[in-house]
Amino acid sequence: MIILEQSIIAKDPKRKSEDGIVVTDDFIAVIDGSTSKTNRRYSYFKSNGRYAMQIIEKFIRKAPKNISCHDFCVGVTKKIRKHYKNSEIPHLAEHPEERLTASAIIFSRVRREIWMIGDCQCLVGGEFYDNPKPYEQELAEQRAQIILSGEEPKEHYLTNDTARQQIIPRMLETMKLQNVTYSVIDGFHIPEQYVRVITLDFQPWEIVLASDGYPFLCSTLEESEQRLARQKEEDPLNIGQFKATKAFTEGNNSFDDRSYIRFKV
Description:
Low-confidence stretches: none
Number of domains: 1
Number of strands: 10
Structural class: alpha+beta
Largest sheet: 5 strands, antiparallel
CATH architecture: 4-Layer Sandwich
Mean pLDDT: 95
Shape: globular
Order of helices and strands: EEEHHHEEEEHHHEEHE
Number of helices: 7
CATH superfamily: PPM-type phosphatase domain
C-alpha cells in the first residue's frame, strides 16, 4: 500500500476534528465521528464524535490482519459498548441519539475489500461509491425550503441557522432508525445488509477514501478542495445543487469536518 496524499481538516479552526485517518500495515480507514445533537457527554475533555472516532481508531490498530467484515462489525460494536454502563443500555436502546456514534470506511489489505459502515464515500479506479443515510436528503431539502420561503435574509442563516434548528426534531426522530434501516458504529448490533462491501481483484488500484465533508469527491485532494471552495463561494448555505443539513457557518472553514486519503494497492 502506497500513500499518495492525505488530509484531515476540522470545520472549526478552534476545535479538534471528529474525523480520523488510520494507516497500518494491513488497514487504511477514514472514521467520521458524529456530532452530538443532545447534551449527553461521555468525556469531559472531548466531544462524543471525537471520543467515538478514537475508540474505533484504537480497535483498527489492534485488529487481526485477516479479520472479516462480519468480525470487524461484531468486535467494534463490543468495543464501543464497553464505554456504556450496563444500567444505561435500556435507555440507549430507546434513545440512539444519545449513543457514541460514528461512520467508517475501511480498506483491508489481506481481504482486498472496502467496508462502508455508515455515511462515507470513496473512489475505486475513478468509480464513485457511497453509502448515504436515508432521510438525509429529505432533511436537507426541508431545510432548503425553510430558507427559500422564509422572510429572513439569507445572510441570517450563516450566523444563526434557525432552519437547521427547525429540522433537528425530525433529525432526532430519524436517528431512532440507526442500525435498523441503516448502519453506523454505535455499540449496538450493526445490520450487515446495510454495510456496503466492495471487493477488489488483484490488479493495481488507486483508491480514495473520504468522509462526507467533501460534497464533490475528486481523484486528487487539490481538486476536491477546489470544488469545496467553489461551493462555499457560490452557495454557502448549501441549498442549491448540493443540499446539506447545515451551512458554511461564519467563522468556520467548511460545513463539516473533512478527511481524505488517496493510495495505491
